[in-house]
Design a protein that fits this description.
Serine Threonine Protein Phosphatase 5, Tetratricopeptide repeat, 8 helices, 142 residues
């Protein structure tokens, strides 16, 4: 498969091949087959090339969303890419799944920031768990 992918890339005009190269480079980086910095850069460059060749390719927007979300921790940018995919292919199951996960992450972060705004209230509410003693609620704290 990789040889066929390389052949398509040599032609340089097949955007979907660039998407798959980006996915392969990202996977190779995740499993430690190539150095992290080099692999992340190669994955990003490949997906940018795919989008330059075909800006309306849904698969390219999904992969860009993955890179933004998982690698760059740009959750807003990731969501933008996933929403673009849904606009291009409304029933795309991977785009819907990624957008749902993105929303879940944003909801969790929102709650986390709400918690940090009121830490003492949260800690006091946790004191009623168990025997009511602060130490029983946080038994892992020595």
């Amino acid at each position: 498969m990789l040889r066929g992918l390389i052949l398509l890339l040599r032609v340089g005009l097949y955007a979907l091949a660039w998407v798959w190269l980006s996915r392969v480079r990202n996977w190779q980086t995740n499993v430690g087959a190539i150095p992290r910095k080099e692999g992340r850069q190669a994955a990003r460059e490949a997906i940018e090339r795919a989008l330059a060749l075909d800006p309306n390719l849904a698969e390219a927007h999904i992969q860009m969303g993955r890179i933004r979300h998982q690698v760059e921790l740009d959750w807003t940018g990731g969501d933008t890419s996933f929403q673009r995919t849904i606009a291009l292919e409304p029933g795309n199951p991977e785009a819907l799944r990624q957008a749902s996960l993105e929303q879940l992450n944003l909801d969790v972060l929102t709650k986390l920031f709400d918690w940090t705004a009121e830490p003492l209230t949260w800690i006091r509410s946790m004191q009623t768990v168990g025997t009511g003693s602060p130490r029983s609620s946080f038994s892992w704290v020595s």
